[in-house]
Amino acid sequence: MTDTSTDSTRAGFVALIGEPNAGKSTLTNAMVGAKVSIVTHKVQTTRARIRGVAMEGDSQIVFVDTPGLFRPRRHLDRAMVAAAWSGAADADIIVLLVEAHRGLTDGVQAILDALREREVDPSRVALAINKIDRVPRDKLLGLTAKMTEAFEFSQVFMISAEKGYGVDDLRVWLAERLPKGPWLYPEDQIADLPMRMIAAEITREKLTLRLHQELPYQLTVETENWEERKDGSVKIDQVIYVARDGHKGIALGPRGETIKQISMAAREELAEFVGRKVHLFLQVKVRPGWLEERERYSEIGLDYNDG
Fold first, then answer.
1. CATH number, position 41
2. pLDDT score at 239
3. Is 90 annotated as a binding residue?
4. In the predicted structure, residue 81 carries a pLDDT above the cut 50
5. 264 Rama class: left (phi>0) / alpha (psi -120 to 50) / beta
6. Is 72 annotated as a binding residue?
7. End of a domain among 113, 146, 177?
8. Which residue ranges are recorded for the region named G4 (predicted)?
9. Within-domain flag for 184
């Protein structure tokens, strides 16, 4: 193991910011080499500042996977956007992710304007143009020129987080620019989220994937109980909170088939993640005002007051 007490080690925080669905969670997982952030085709799935820890040589890179930046409407939205900017403010380096096929949208321009308003030093902001496999090369060059004209980025990377293109180059560049100092986490630790919250996020991902348009963001998952059993397995009890009675029926599905499939998919992934057998028990409860409950916010890693 590397001696973390010497001057050769580096460690620091890297915030990934961008519009919803820009690929921040996918990039976090590609960098870390494990699934620490939920990835779905739906926007705004990342609610809390999930940190993934990646090692590159003698450097430890702690990724802050922030919620997507968008124009907030609800209390929950405002808390999510506040969490994103807080994550960026605390980071040593900021990486702005932009989707190659969407380019310099109004949302991206708003983020650039906000970076300037907050007087963020451009030398600590890199641009990662993601999903480059979706557009021709000449369009990429045009977008790069437009983006660098709009903001003085320290470096520009062309990547595909999903396919892995350019990810190694970005990780090496980040590792070389972090402050010198001891590592912040044990070498084998990949995320600073408690296992109970990671388990809840995995189940929420399965719900989001399965329910698609029917039940977008009106649900949350909490791990109520985590019991280590003598045979080495773990028993996990979770509650899915929905806002309306009709939502409960959607989550359960005809004869409970939907929740059964969701439970099976979540259990398989949890077992793979913890490396042992998992007994998962899900309950669906109607809680009309959960979107305004202070306790629910702390459970998913957000500050209620930020909303």
1. 3.40.50.300
2. 92
3. no
4. yes
5. alpha
6. no
7. 177
8. 130-133
9. no
Q: Is 106 annotated as a binding residue?
A: no
Considering the domain architecture, whether residues 169 and 245 belong to the same structural domain is answered as no
Is 25 annotated as a binding-site member?
yes
pLDDT of residue 174 exceeding 60: yes
Of the candidates 224, 235, 246, the residue with the CA atom closest to the CA atom of residue 278:
235
62 in a structural domain:
yes
pLDDT over 70 for what percent of the chain?
73
Per the annotation, does 29 bind a ligand?
A: no
Q: Binding residue per annotation — 96?
A: no
Residue 23 counted as an annotated binding residue: yes
135 and 105 housed in the same domain: yes
Kindly state whether residue 4 falls inside one of the protein's structural domains: no
The reply to whether 131 sits in an annotated binding site is: yes
Relative orientation angle of helices 195-211 and 257-274, to the nearest 10 degrees: 140
| Residue 118 in tokens | 């907050």
Ligand-binding site membership of 35 (annotated): no
127 and 90 co-located in one domain: yes
Summarised one tens digit per residue, pLDDT across range 176-214 is 999 999 988 877 666 666 677 888 888 988 888 888 666
Q: Are residues 173 and 274 in the same domain?
A: no
Q: What pTM, to 2 d.p., does this model score?
A: 0.62
Q: How confident is the model at residue 265 (pLDDT cuts 50, 70, 90)?
A: very high
67 marked as binding residue: yes
Phi first, then psi, for residue 289 (nearest 5°) are -100, 25
State yes or no: 24 annotated in a binding site. Answer: yes
Is residue 65 a known part of a binding site? yes
Could you report the per-residue pLDDT of 5-59, keeping only the tens digit for each? 557 899 998 988 888 788 888 888 888 876 665 544 444 444 445 567 888 989 9
Predicted confidence (pLDDT) at residue 86 exceeds the cutoff of 80: no
The reply to whether 107 and 169 lie within a common domain is yes
Considering the domain architecture, whether residues 33 and 148 belong to the same structural domain is answered as yes
Q: What is the 3-state secondary structure (H, E, C) of 43-101?
A: CCCCCCCEEEEEEECCEEEEEEECCCCCCCCCHHHHHHHHHHHHHHHHCCEEEEEEECC
The answer on 111 and 45 residing in a single domain is yes
What is the total count of domains within the chain?
2
Instruction: Answer yes or no: is 66 a known binding residue.
Output: yes
